[in-house]
Amino acid sequence: MKQTLAIFALTIVTCFLTVSTQAQSGLKDLEGTINIDGSSTVAPITIEADAGFRKIAPKVKVPVGVSGTGGGFKRFTKGETDISDASRPIKYKEFESCKANGVSFIEIPVAYDGLTVAVGKSNDFVEQLTVDQLKKIFLADSKDKSFTNAKTWKDIDDSWPATEIKIFSPGTDSGTFDYFKEVVVGKSDASMRADMSVSEDDNVLVQGIAKTEGAIGFFGASYYFANQDKLKGVKIVNPDSGEAVEVSAANIESGVYAPFSRPLFIYVNSKSARRPEVKVFVNYYLDNAPELAAKVKYVGLPKEIGDAAKAHFKTRKVGTHFWEMNNGEPAKREGSLSEVYTVENLLK
Amino acid sequence: MLSIFYQGMLAFNPPQDEIVAELSEIKSKLANVAADSSDAQDLTVRQLELRELQETIDKSFLSKPPAPSAREAGIGPALMGSIWVCAGCTAFFLPLGVGTAIFLEEFKPRNKFLRWLSDMLQLNINNLAGVPSIVYGILGMTVFATMFGLFGSPNEPFFELGTKFKRQYVTEGMQVVFVPVADRDETPTLVDGMTALKSDGSEVKLNIIGDDDDFPEDDATLAVSLFSDSDGGVVAENAWYSFRLPFGRSVLAASMTLMLVILPVVIISTQEALRAVPMSLRQGAQGLGCTPWQTVRNVTLPAAIPGIMTGCILSMSRAIGEAAPILMISGIVAISMGPQHLMDDFSILPLQIYYWAGQPVNDADPFNFQHVAAGAIIVLLLVLFAFNSVAIVLRQIAQKRLS
Question: C-alpha distances in angstroms, A348 versus A88, A104, A149, A343?
Fold first, then answer.
């Protein structure tokens, strides 16, 4: 009797095993190409996702391009790519050209990135900055001379030395630049300073800030985390609470590192989302997003937003959450990601 | 330079954490045991084994696809892409460049207007040799990749050859089945009992379930069951000769763009080589009654071949190192396989290096993307050296045959 039971149990176990391996091996036969382009900030997560996905469906080709968020959307709105990586929400202009070309999309946040403002290790006076101080540093003089920017650190705080401020900034086509500009410039008609050292290569920024006296710059937090021995991250004063907050994974996730923590997105063409290989890829991406993000030194999304994203993709909720129509005029929706990312807020 | 070389060699042999850890463990153990004990001997043997393992060159760097972690990253698809693009480029620039140079140099017009035209052409070619390559990238994008939008988008091309379509479905039992279709927009109506193909080519009979039908229970039926409204997705299968208009962001578009980049240089260097052929040779041929074409074919061209070949191969070396135009055309920095046909997506070595060099660098980590980039640079350098040495050898052979 015991023996029969054991054999019975064994059979059941083997049955389960074969079923599970079969289920996996079934998807191994998936074929096709998933075209991805867009932000070089998001690309590492996507490449990480591709590497994992390759083990599930080795025959699917996933070429990942890095044309920048703007460049990626330019192709996405024409329907050339299936998925667009973006380090900022879609702009209204891009959204409109999507509509004009009959492209609808599903907007999916995949991770948080903290934008770090950093100074060199030798800088011993700057510990924290407010957004207003950042404006003084990064904005250009206004035409009517009502606002002039700080030339030396003394212009910002009298207790600081009169060293010249040297600014290092990512390229103007990057989502990182756009995001920083949005926070610092806001709705005013000011513009960013023109006399900045601009580089597309964030390592150049890191080297520049570390080696130049009086330097300040900004870039994605992952570059700061990798170079903490060379750079000093500036604490940013949260405009709501008035407290200076250090950039760290915990602070980014909890949302207290404001206003410089930003969500990263992938935009999936809803027509492509019907294709089995795209469906399996995005599902894999979403299921593993927190781990993938952590591997490339980004911060995973809270579980509620991850679940909402999965639900959005599963039920194919198209449109953007970040724009609303205000008396026929497009307006950017304000608020934290969890407030904005709801089905009610979708604009088709 | 030396440091790049050293860093690059690491890419062929990334330090393995386990080996490094075990080695340091052995070192501490060795300090504690007597020098002539059998333990010490065993440990020393193991130490030697590990060191050997540490020093073996890992050739898989050349074939692995790029990966998110530096230790697993390789340059396989990019290397294949570089070879494809460079080969394609050569196939175009060689006849076009050499032909143009011969025409401009050996068939000079006598008519005044035509002579003026030929001078203008010459001036333009000289100017084009100095145009930055990114400009050619933008030009190639419009002319080859999108073809001014005249032929629709690359996703819905105006003309296609060698492409077969099939609709891909995932059944309720998570199996992949294909139904061949005539074009990319056709959605076949699913009927019960229709045949579909599995990926190994075997045929299966589909079990189509409607809304009111019973949902099958057993695995065998589930594996071939599809809901009647499942739409699947189209998959294109390209033969090696596949072709389409417009070219899209393909190997062909990239080769033709690179051809534009180096064509002026090829033409100028070929002209120089032709000019170096003594006039007396041509006059001798003409004196014997050769037509201009016979002179070129039998006298001038053979005499100029060594110089022409040197110019062409040096231009090829430039083509294989160009990143900027390809960044416009392809921009792909991670792809799991090399190109299979001329219309395929691809990445090339310089692009891969450009992307890796920009990754976050942590100096504390003994192996990061800078090392991988350096490794790719060494491979690129070796390819260049190989090209240049072929140029030298070919020139030597050609010269010997002439003298």
Answer: 18, 8, 41, 11
Give the total number of structural domains in chain B: 3
* pLDDT above 90 (res B349): yes
Q: Which of A34, A40, A45, A47 to mutate to test the interface with B (most CBs of B within 10 A)?
A: A47
Pairing verdict, β B207-209 and B225-227: parallel
- Global pTM reads 0.83
Number of neighbouring beta carbons within 10 Å of residue A197: 15
Confidence check: pLDDT of A17 > 50 = no
Query: Are A64 and B345 an interchain contact pair (Cβ–Cβ within 8 Å)?
Result: no
Q: Same domain for B373 and B236? A: no
Residues of A in contact with B223 (CB under 8 A): 26
The CATH homologous superfamily for domain A30-113+263-345 is: Periplasmic binding protein-like II (3.40.190.10)
This complex has an ipTM of 0.84
Question: Among candidates B183, B227, B236, B233, which has minimal Cα distance to A273?
Answer: B233
Residue-wise pLDDT for A36-46, tens only, equals 999 888 998 99
Tokens of B309: 């070949």
B289 and B223 part of one domain: no
Which class for B316: exposed (0-12), middle (13-18), buried (19 or more C-beta within 10 A)? buried
Domain A114-261, CATH 1.20.140.160 — does that match?
no
